[in-house]
Amino acid sequence: MTSMETRRYGTEPSQFVELHGTPGGRGTAILLHGGWWRARHDLHQLDPMAADLVAAGWYVANVEYRRIDGDTGGWPQTLDDVRAAIAAVERPAALPTVAIGHSAGGHLALLAGGALSGVVALAPITDVPRARTEELGEGAAGLFLTGDDPAASPVRQLPIGCPQLVVHGDADVRVPVAHSRDYVAAAKAAGDDVDYVELPGVDHFRLIDPADEPWQSARAWLGQRFS
């Protein structure tokens, strides 16, 4: 990993960003980790991805945010954190800024993506009430969102208005692939520019390993869209 700078965007312990690389290059990649918004999962999940993107010429902002289970996160403060973190990152206006999120991070990337150049959503949570009804994430969706605010679910905020890549493995048991299939169909019907890659035999976590083949679909899309 290259040299790293930590930048705070608030006073809470979880309100910080780790910056890797140098501003400029191909643009800025905003990384948003998953873990069902739970406090036991943190931004270091995506350290290998950050290193891979820096090597490819991206300036990387790996974002931490308030989570549930002992932290002060939940809806809407977790998304507020993501938006504040993005605003705190100095980015050349002439270069793209792309949010890349996995699982719960994919959910946050899609919700924040309208103000950015693009979104890569890896096995994203797209419908929080649906995840709650299906009892996914050991009840995390019900802790994250206690009511039924449409603004909390990307599928109910379409069109997002920026290019999107959604990648999902059909062997995913954490976030079923049907969620992404339904989201992509709805996004296209709403007029969004969405590419979809479904990977046979791939589970939830292989998508974030930059040494593994599933990540290459995201790398290729970034190269084609933001060369």
TrEMBL record:
Residues 29-113 form the BD-FAE-like domain. This is Prolyl oligopeptidase family protein. Keywords: Hydrolase. It comes from the Bacteria. It comes from Amycolatopsis echigonensis. InterPro entries: AB_hydrolase_fold (IPR029058), BD-FAE-like_dom (IPR049492), GDXG_lipolytic_enzyme (IPR050300). GO terms for molecular function: hydrolase activity. The lineage of its organism: Bacteria, Bacillati, Actinomycetota, Actinomycetes, Pseudonocardiales.
